[in-house]
Design brief:
The protein is α/β, with parallel strands linked by helices and 384 residues long. The protein is 43% helix and 18% strand. Strand 2 and strand 3 form a beta hairpin. Helix 6 packs across helix 11, helix 10 crosses helix 11 and helix 14 crosses helix 16. The C terminus is likely disordered. One of its GO terms (molecular function) is O-methyltransferase activity. It comes from Dioscorea cayennensis subsp. rotundata (White Guinea yam). It holds the Pfam family Methyltransf_2.
Length: 384
């Protein structure tokens, strides 16, 4: 007979701590919406243009297009944003009032910055996006719908983008906002990835932000953006990149390298295999490669916040695309199914850059780790 499990008792202090943690998780959305408010009012931009000096509260109030009746509430908005790390509160030079300066967190929100995340923040927090989260529990109870987004709107994210010009433009701006910052890191930290390359096709390249960054950094590479017709139609003209409309499930234009940023996490394993097979057909067996920028779960185990952010991304995929974020073993399985021979992972904050090779005959560099796949097994090999 099984021994009964003793009922676990918790102290009052433990329960109060638990209550505070639940409060924090629920109220975290208030921090996000406060940040969205600051961006819409352009508070980071206004403070950054104050000649490099701390901006007194009175000056900030007079510079904002807010109602005079609401001026008394601004210090409370600034207080939470300061606590979150977006601003530093100091004493003004006359020592009569508080003043504010920007931080690295608010620096990446400046609307006129080429690496601004402001459009990404506003896109992720737009009501059209947020409403799908209210259908999460309904979705678990349903069998018909692929995602909570589809349950709420009656169609997939991709159909929404193709049928509603405003949503398509907002979605493309959201993705471009992320690309502007991430791609600056890619072309500087991963410069050797692009050595010896003459042509590159950015599959699912949106409005061309990533491809333009690559073309600007490496003028010898001819870059082409390959995406669906309604996406290409929203792409600004650029002498740096070409644009080709098409479907990656049907074919991929040939190039020395295929580039995909935040594409495969939108799809199931089966769909990823189909996409990567088309990519493998498009590159040289001996010299070609596929470059994937995506999340590798558990790549930053020593940083709980980084891991939590990666898990949040996985929930976004579940709610909007039906895809998922993957750990290294899950990526390995897909690469093996496609028939790739080897791959290399370079961490990039929350995301990673993964180079995947049809052939193991490559120069991987002096400080890289290359993983060789052999049928159903893979052996790790370090090149020191």
């Amino acid at each position: 007979m099984a021994t009964p499990i003793k009922k676990q008792e918790f102290t009052a202090e433990e329960l109060l701590q638990a209550q505070a943690q639940v409060f924090h998780h629920v109220y975290a959305q208030i921090g996000a919406m406060s940040l969205n408010c600051a961006i819409e009012l352009d508070i980071p931009g206004i403070i950054s243009k104050h000649g490099g000096e701390p901006m007194p509260l009175s000056n900030l109030i007079s510079s904002l297009p807010i109602s005079a009746k609401k001026a008394a509430f601004l210090p409370r908005l600034m207080r939470i944003l300061t606590h979150m790390g977006y601003f530093v509160q100091e004493t003004a030079s006359d020592k009569k009032e508080v003043a504010y300066t920007i931080t690295p967190l608010s620096k990446v929100l400046l609307k006129d910055s080429p690496t601004s995340l402001s459009s990404w923040v506003m896109g992720m927090l737009h009501p059209y996006s947020r409403v799908s989260w209210h259908r999460l529990s309904d979705w678990f109870l349903e069998e018909r719908y692929e995602t909570p987004c589809e349950l709420e709107h009656g169609k997939s994210l991709w159909d929404l983008a193709s049928e509603i010009p405003y949503y398509n433009h907002r979605f493309n701006e959201t993705m471009a906002g992320d690309s502007r910052l991430l791609m600056k890191a890619v072309v500087t930290k991963c410069e050797e990835v692009f050595h010896g390359m003459r042509t590159l096709v950015d599959v699912g390249g949106g409005t061309g932000t990533s491809a333009r960054t690559i073309a600007e950094a490496f003028p010898h590479i001819k870059c082409t953006v390959f995406d669906l017709p309604h996406v290409i139609a929203d792409m600004p003209e650029s002498p740096l990149v070409d644009a080709v409309a098409g479907n990656m499930f049907e074919y991929v234009p040939k190039a020395d390298a295929i580039f995909m940023k935040l594409i495969l996490h939108d799809w199931t394993d089966e769909d990823c295999v189909k996409i990567l097979k088309k990519c493998k057909e498009a590159v040289s067996e001996r010299e070609g490669k596929v470059i994937i920028v995506d999340i590798v779960l558990d790549s930053n185990k020593e940083d709980p916040k980084m891991t939590e952010t990666q898990l949040f991304w996985d929930m976004v995929m579940m709610a909007f695309t039906g895809g998922l974020e993957r750990n290294e073993d899950e990526w390995k399985h897909i690469f093996n199914e496609v028939g790739f021979s080897s791959y290399k992972i370079t961490p990039l904050g929350v995301r990673s850059l993964i180079e995947v090779f049809p052939s193991i005959i490559h120069n991987y560099g002096a400080s890289s780790s290359m993983y060789v796949m052999n049928n159903l097994l893979k052996k790790a090999s370090s090149y020191m």
